[in-house]
Amino acid sequence: MNRTLPAALATGDRPPGRWGWLAVGIWLFYLAQPLTEIWQTQHGVVRILGLLNLVAFGVAYLGFFGVLRWQEFRSDASPLWHRLGFLGLMLTLTLLLIPTAGQTALTCVVYIAATAVISLSPQLGVAIVLLLLGSVELAMRVVPGWTDDGSYGFAIFLGALAVFGMRRAMQRGSELQRAREDMAKLAVQEERNRFARDLHDILGHSLTVITVKAELAGRLIQVNPEKAAAEVADVESLARAALGDVRAAVAGYRELSLAGELVSARTALQAAEIKADLPTTMDEVPEENRELFAWVVREGVTNVIRHSGAKRCTIKLSARQIEVLDDGKGPGGTTSGHGLLGLRERADQAGAALQVGESPDGGFRLAAKVGP
């Protein structure tokens, strides 16, 4: 005799959808045995009462499932006494069914065990299943006319075990869903950090050069109006370029050019009246290293102009390394700024080592080396 537990109480990582009622209600088919027993052995009012009792049990089972489904099968969604009360009602209906259905009424105990496992904490659910199992085995041995074929006890044990496994699978599914949501939030946060870092690097460099050129134009406006006008034109051009960089960053396709950064660095250093000793070629630099080296040039030159007070800036370039050196005040407090933190992250992603410290001339040295 097959008395498989209503396994569809827990399917997947979410409560059943529109077909959840069918998936659970179909297991009421196993109540056909007590139904047949009542119909064949009882007559008149007793038969009607027995059938009504069996229908009430089925309604209680489906109603309890509806409550659990609404609560998303969380064992802490309602007070414990509510859940124990439901189980007590189902047990009472089972006991009332015994006078009309006889031993076949024990089929209902399988549903009670299933509901206990899915609705209560694991410890309490196991305790109730063991209590039901012991009571059924004892009743089949002491009640006159009942036979102990082991099928009811086995059905209770097997059904409870199956639902317990399904409940664990449902919990694991819910945990996996929450983990996916957390990963999505972390990905969004990481993208926000990346965009903020890029925006800082873009505007930090551009606004530094604009500030230097604007100051130079202010000093020249009286003594050399034509030169001042040229500097103002450069400020306008730089502002437009910075706006273009920001728009490109928003669009997500901006990439730095090493050649372009070297040209911009020469222009910015000259505007700040810092002698620039820059490489004239970059042919030996592999393509995969050029974007990282471009970021080093941008960050290094920005720091030279902003913080160093230097008179000379030198950039040394090789296939696997780039160095930005000056003869200014030295590292000071510039070794942990936002720009350097962002540059260090880029270097880590490219498998490069970033070095920040004092240059041989006593100034500041920023270097990135790819590989050993």
Description:
β1, α10 (287-308) and β2 form a beta-alpha-beta unit. α2 packs antiparallel against α3 (44-70). The chain is α+β, with helices and mostly antiparallel strands. It is rod-shaped, with a radius of gyration of 39 Å. It is 66% helix and 8% strand. Strands 1-2-3-5-4 form a 5-stranded mixed sheet, with helices on one face. The protein has 11 helices and 5 strands.
β-strand number:
5
What's the overall geometry? rod-shaped
Which percent band covers the strand fraction? 5-15%
Q: Radius of gyration, rounded?
A: 39 Å
**Strand arrangement in the largest pleated sheet:** 1-2-3-5-4
H and E order: HHHHHHHHHEHEEHEE
Helix content: 55-70%
Low-confidence region ranges: 1-17
For the report, how would you describe the main beta sheet? 5 strands, mixed
| Number of H- or I-type helical stretches | 11
Coarse structural class: alpha+beta
Quote the average pLDDT: 79
Topology (SSEs and partners):
Elements: H1 20-25, H2 32-41, H3 44-70, H4 80-101, H5 107-119, H6 122-142, H7 151-223, H8 225-251, H9 258-271, E1 275-277, H10 287-308, E2 312-317, E3 321-326, H11 338-349, E4 352-358, E5 364-370
Parallel strand pairs: 1-2
Antiparallel strand pairs: 2-3, 3-5, 4-5
Helix pairs in contact: 2-3, 3-4, 3-5, 4-5, 5-6, 5-7, 6-7, 7-8, 7-10, 9-10, 10-11
Brief characterization of the structure:
The protein is α+β, with helices and mostly antiparallel strands and 372 residues long.
